Please model this.
Amino acid sequence: DVKVTQSSRYLVKRTGEKVFLECVQDMDHENMFWYRQDPGLGLRLIYFSYDVKMKEKGDIPEGYSVSREKKERFSLILESASTNQTSMYLCASSRDSGYNEQFFGPGTRLTVL
Amino acid sequence: GNSVTQMEGPVTLSEEAFLTINCTYTATGYPSLFWYVQYPGEGLQLLLKATKADDKGSNKGFEATYRKETTSFHLEKGSVQVSDSAVYFCALMRSYNTDKLIFGTGTRLQVFP
Model:
């Protein structure tokens, strides 16, 4: 059974803290993605990676960075968390290019106080 | 630019009613179109897809037809069940070699017995 796991379901942090969100997939997928989901806005792409150590900015990369040191793991980093980063964060992965299905993790609900 | 517009929810139906969730898109070129579903407390999962004009995607009783002339990909089901209660996202993939999805804002479906 294919699986994308995220390190936490719920996370509460304080303004200014450095926050790490971890995502692991067991499908040997080349592509990995980080989205944030907000009511009325749907899902918006933050960053994606199409190979180890490769990354590209999505539509809303400001305030975020990513790391992909191993194929199965893709980390999202909030260098200095702010209250407007309170959101649901979803990780996804897919096989190499070709209209392939993205598989999603269960999400991390982050609250920044 | 590329975008997806979905009808606002929530959509509230009785069991066995007919469902339509409207989705229209704006895109350059020839995008692929997707419907994803998010059940409560879970990540998104692919429901169906269509990769070219006039294609019909279908799964679990749901159907959607890629209509290039009306730039639409409406989701339909003939008889909904309580277990179909979820949030439904329409999405497009911009091109073959990026795997990047653009999502609509999502439509919540509530089905009552």
In short: The first strand of chain A starts at residue 4 and ends at 6. DSSP finds no helices and eleven strands in chain A. The CA atoms of residues 60 and 107 of chain A lie 18 Å apart. Chain A touches chain B through 26 residues (CB under 8 Å).
